[in-house]
Amino acid sequence: MKFKIFMMILFINIFFISCARYHDTVTPLKLPGATSNYVVFDNGLKVTAYIVPSKEAGFDEASAKVLPVKITIENNSKHAAIIAGSQTFLIDKDNNAWPILPYNKAVNRIKEATTIGNTLKGSTTPSILGGLLGAVGGLAIGILTDKDIAESAGKGAAVGAAAGATIGGISAYQNSGEKISNDISEKHIRDKQILPNMITYGYLYFPGECKSPNKLRLAMEINGRLEVKNINLK
Fold it and tell me: Are residues 180 and 149 in the same domain?
């Protein structure tokens, strides 16, 4: 019985550790003038970009099949600008053009890849407490009924842990999806207007099916006209 309980706990811990989780991150900006790959639009609107690593993105990009590109824009021109999303593409080494993932699709992919991990993370404390309380209860039952005390305690711990994980997991599951949606919405740069003298930054999310990203074909709508530049990402 003790061996079975040990193996169950070991399996749960391994499963928990292996599940992808989402976490918010804060990183400093790399202003365009301080990078080697920046481009200039409209005689003064500087833009730089780079592929965001999973550690900074806050989720496992391979599991989610989402590839974020962080863009920083310093508008020293005289005009307001906005990214023309339908004309912006991630270009791979084979010269294939990958469109921006629609916001909802990017969020859903990240949710599907990370919600289970967040649910398990949220259930950790309740399951531990439930296991301890269950073990105590099972121990008491074993003493009172003159049954195998270790076996009773083990069964109580298993039942208590299951109950605690369920309660904590439901709570975490409900909160996880909303947190991801809000965070992705806040970081998304596609529809943000960049006014003169503003510094704006954020992410564009591309399909993770692109395995060899090479450059960003960035289209900006400035003063009613479209201007396109290629930004090297390697």
Answer: yes
